[in-house]
């Protein structure tokens, strides 16, 4: 904790934000919405911005946590604090600790960020006072300072942040239950345990469907149905069309990999496994999978059923039915109707990528892997809803 080793007992249900304030008296971490939305409680966990109000304290065992009180010798934060003062980037100060933490992540991770990118990255931190302009100006000021007069310590922080992290995965028996890390056990071990658990609990799926956690969508592909069916059976190729998805291993109809999402400073990477069940005669398949985010310990499982319908000689409709269950701190986001709209938009983009691949527009080696930008997609969804409510001007 802020460079010091700390050991305290904590109930499994206690969130990191409450632990910081009540047990360690680090009251610089502010709790606002306590739903992971406003960003006031953002701290660093292993160098990554994290919502302390929806992260369990026990999930941080063996990790490095940095709060606003722990930046006294941080070169990036020194420049940010001066810039925030210079550009009047704070008023009441309630959002400021979380805002500074996110701003630090931006200036270190995105040295060439422009105003639009800065605003996108800040979208997960809310401020009721400033109107954001001063905050944006302060971040852009620090980025320009580092370009004009580079600080050696600042640059070392940047290199440390972007350096690849290597972890050793140890195979764990499939029957091993997934729990918060025990003393001496790393998150990598949890990831390995998840990767060996492709089975989906049918009872949980039935409950998820009863709760309304089911989505039915479709998209059209301008290619013959047989060609689309053959492509949909190639799991690595399909994964390359899904933003944020990577496959680590592939054997027959089973795959192991990760799906990563990012919403402002909040990010999750669900590592797990999936199994594909195909019915070639009916051109119907079911992808059953389960995964876990190593940081928040949120778990997800689901069935994705897709069925192909020939609309014509060169046109195919792909029907997608999804049933999903989400447990843990991130489960609250599955209850919003916006999530369903977001998934529909994501499936539509997935369909576009499939059409692109079938048309021969393969992704080049130098082209970056597409990622899930929840902020941009959510804004698009909200804008479409607003247009639907008020109607488009003629």
UniProtKB/TrEMBL annotation:
<dbReference type="InterPro" id="IPR023393">
    <property type="entry name" value="START-like_dom_sf"/>
</dbReference>
<dbReference type="InterPro" id="IPR010419">
    <property type="entry name" value="CO_DH_gsu"/>
</dbReference>
<keyword id="KW-0001">2Fe-2S</keyword>
<dbReference type="GO" id="GO:0043885">
    <property type="term" value="F:anaerobic carbon-monoxide dehydrogenase activity"/>
</dbReference>
<dbReference type="InterPro" id="IPR051452">
    <property type="entry name" value="Diverse_Oxidoreductases"/>
</dbReference>
<dbReference type="InterPro" id="IPR006058">
    <property type="entry name" value="2Fe2S_fd_BS"/>
</dbReference>
<protein>
    <submittedName>
        <fullName>Carbon-monoxide dehydrogenase small subunit</fullName>
        <ecNumber>1.2.7.4</ecNumber>
    </submittedName>
</protein>
<dbReference type="GO" id="GO:0046872">
    <property type="term" value="F:metal ion binding"/>
</dbReference>
<dbReference type="Pfam" id="PF01799">
    <property type="entry name" value="Fer2_2"/>
</dbReference>
<dbReference type="InterPro" id="IPR036884">
    <property type="entry name" value="2Fe-2S-bd_dom_sf"/>
</dbReference>
<keyword id="KW-0560">Oxidoreductase</keyword>
<dbReference type="GO" id="GO:0051537">
    <property type="term" value="F:2 iron, 2 sulfur cluster binding"/>
</dbReference>
<feature type="domain" description="2Fe-2S ferredoxin-type">
    <location>
        <begin position="1"/>
        <end position="71"/>
    </location>
</feature>
<dbReference type="InterPro" id="IPR012675">
    <property type="entry name" value="Beta-grasp_dom_sf"/>
</dbReference>
<keyword id="KW-0408">Iron</keyword>
<dbReference type="InterPro" id="IPR001041">
    <property type="entry name" value="2Fe-2S_ferredoxin-type"/>
</dbReference>
<dbReference type="InterPro" id="IPR036010">
    <property type="entry name" value="2Fe-2S_ferredoxin-like_sf"/>
</dbReference>
<dbReference type="InterPro" id="IPR002888">
    <property type="entry name" value="2Fe-2S-bd"/>
</dbReference>
<dbReference type="Pfam" id="PF06240">
    <property type="entry name" value="COXG"/>
</dbReference>
<dbReference type="Pfam" id="PF00111">
    <property type="entry name" value="Fer2"/>
</dbReference>
<keyword id="KW-0411">Iron-sulfur</keyword>
<keyword id="KW-0479">Metal-binding</keyword>
């Amino acid at each position: 904790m802020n460079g010091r080793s700390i050991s305290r007992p904590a109930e499994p249900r206690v969130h990191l934000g409450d632990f910081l304030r009540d047990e360690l008296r680090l009251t610089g971490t502010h709790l606002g919405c306590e739903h992971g939305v406003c960003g006031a409680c953002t701290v660093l966990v292993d160098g990554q911005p994290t919502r302390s109000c929806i992260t369990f304290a026990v999930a941080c065992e063996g990790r490095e946590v940095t709060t606003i009180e722990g930046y006294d010798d941080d070169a990036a934060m020194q420049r940010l604090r001066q810039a925030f003062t210079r550009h009047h980037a704070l008023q009441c100060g309630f959002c400021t600790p979380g805002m500074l933490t996110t701003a630090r992540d931006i200036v270190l991770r995105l040295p060439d960020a422009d105003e639009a990118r800065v605003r996108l990255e800040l979208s997960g931190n809310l401020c009721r006072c400033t109107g954001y302009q001063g905050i944006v100006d302060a971040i852009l000021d620090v980025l320009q300072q580092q370009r004009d007069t580079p600080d050696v310590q600042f640059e070392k922080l940047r290199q440390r942040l972007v350096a690849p992290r290597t972890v050793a995965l140890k195979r764990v028996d499939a029957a091993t239950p997934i729990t918060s890390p025990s003393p001496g056990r790393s998150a990598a071990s949890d990831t390995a345990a998840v990767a060996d658990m492709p089975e989906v609990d049918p009872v949980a799926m039935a409950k998820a469907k009863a709760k309304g956690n089911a989505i039915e969508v479709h998209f059209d592909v301008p290619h013959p149905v047989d060609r689309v069916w053959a492509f949909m059976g190639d799991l690595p190729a399909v994964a390359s069309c899904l933003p944020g998805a990577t496959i680590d291993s592939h054997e027959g109809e089973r795959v192991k990999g990760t799906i990563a999402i990012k919403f402002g400073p909040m990010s999750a990477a669900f590592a797990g496994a999936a199994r594909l069940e195909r019915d070639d005669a009916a051109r119907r398949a079911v992808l059953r999978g389960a995964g876990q985010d190593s940081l928040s310990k949120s778990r997800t499982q689901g069935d994705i059923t897709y069925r192909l319908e020939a609309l014509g000689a060169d046109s195919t409709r792909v029907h997608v039915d999804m049933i999903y269950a989400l447990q843990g701190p991130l489960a609250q986001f599955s209850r919003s109707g916006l999530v369903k709209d977001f998934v529909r938009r994501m499936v539509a983009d997935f369909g576009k990528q499939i059409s692109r691949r079938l048309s021969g527009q393969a992704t080049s080696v130098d082209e970056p892997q597409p990622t899930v930008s929840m902020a941009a997609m959510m804004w698009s969804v909200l804008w479409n809803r607003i247009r639907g409510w008020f109607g488009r001007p003629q």
